[in-house]
Amino acid sequence: MKNFRRKWGRMLLPALLVLSAAAFSAAGFVGRDSLYSKYEDKFPEEPWLTLVFQGAHDRIWPWELVTVFAAPPEAGYAGAEPSDTETADALTAADGAGAEGQAHVEVLPEGEKDDTVPEIDPRYATIPSSGNGRIPEGAGDPVMDAVDYGSWEPSFLSPPDTEYNTDKEGPFAVNGVFYPLQSVDREYFSDALFIGDSRTQGLWEYGGLKDTASFCCRESVTTFNLLDEELDYGRPGQATVKSGLRQVLEQDSFRKIYISLGINEVGYPNTYIYYENYREILALIRELQPDAIIYIQGMLHVTAELSRTNIALNNTIVVQRNRAVSTLANGRDIFYLDMNPEFCDGNGDLLPENTGDGVHLMGAVCGAWADYLQGHAVLRGPEDEGTGQKAE
Q1: What is the DSSP letter of 123?
Q2: What does the alpha-carbon distance between residue 335 and residue 135 come to, in Å, rounded to a whole number?
Q3: Torsion from C-alpha of 166, 171, 173, 179, nearest 10 degrees
Q4: 3, 31, 71, 305 — which has fewest CB within 10 A?
Q5: Which sequence spans correspond to the domains of the chain?
């Protein structure tokens, strides 16, 4: 009897794993044209259970299949593409006190703006939309604005007359030579390093660059702790290891470095402190990688649900901070990129169909992030088959 129990105990875990894999595979197969239609079905190269794992990343759970088949066809299903006129109800917190209410949010067609909501607060739009005003059009992206719903905590913003980068010399100053953004092929990223938080992790896992580019990121990382924490560092074809950013920059060489930070500290006072932290990180990168092109990626906006009601996860704060760090771009070897127009509506709010939690891009649309970067790159010098252009 003891031998039987011992033998059964050894078989139990493998049996559970096999049954679980079979159940997830079945769920992926059944939901491939409904619940998981956003994700590419790569069977037989990848098993159907991969669809379930991708959905779980975006908070789409396999038991929602019950809702899919129980609901009438016109009701839609979790994860389905909403129509242009579809609305969503959202639970909201009042000043962080935990009180719940309802907010009504309309998804606008791209390029349209809701005239019934407040205009952008002009007090927090003091930096020209072309970055720091010294970079000509085409040598970087403009900062995308967003409607100000007036729900932000004032201490998280800097005064409207705050000056950020005004350097006349040094790495953040312009010298009259600028490089235009243009389209490249995916091989361009073979010597690129992506630095960031959980949003960058999503790009790593689902953006289609995992076999081409290197990544150094970790969820919850901020501009406050980036230089002190161990991050997940992965290079194409190599196992992921734990490493500090300084160590990565000292031991390996990169010709392009992409940075995406900020969403984890929107609730920290204030924009100028964020700008100073960002500047320190860029200075270290320039010191250790003097020949690299540096891309500052503007923070992705959040949904209207959050921006209307959350004192920190708020697009007024995000836009002011994007404007601040965009002044560090010089159009020569540091560039500001803003992918928000690809994923936001006419109000500058992240479209609900692009996110599962209002903050992170769904895995199914991370490929569009990579496509955007591929269409907004710099070819500089003979190695990149490009030359600098004198501004008129």
Answers
A1: G
A2: 9
A3: -140
A4: 3
A5: 2-75, 105-390
- Tens digit of pLDDT for each residue in 285-335? 999 999 999 999 999 999 999 999 999 999 999 999 999 999 999 999 999
**pLDDT tens readout for residues 30-49:** 666 544 544 456 666 567 56
The C-alpha atoms of residue 121 and residue 25 are separated, in whole angstroms, by 50
- Determine contact, residues 249/286, Cβ cutoff 8 Å: no
Block residue for tokens 């679980």: 20
Which amino acid type is present at position 207? G
CB atoms within 10 A of CB 366: 24
CATH of domain 105-390: 3.40.50.1110
Long-range contacts of 105-110 (CB under 8 A, 24+ apart): 105/303, 105/304, 105/305, 105/308, 105/352, 107/82, 107/83, 107/345, 107/351, 107/352, 107/353, 108/84, 108/345, 108/346, 108/347, 109/84, 109/345, 109/346, 110/345, 110/346
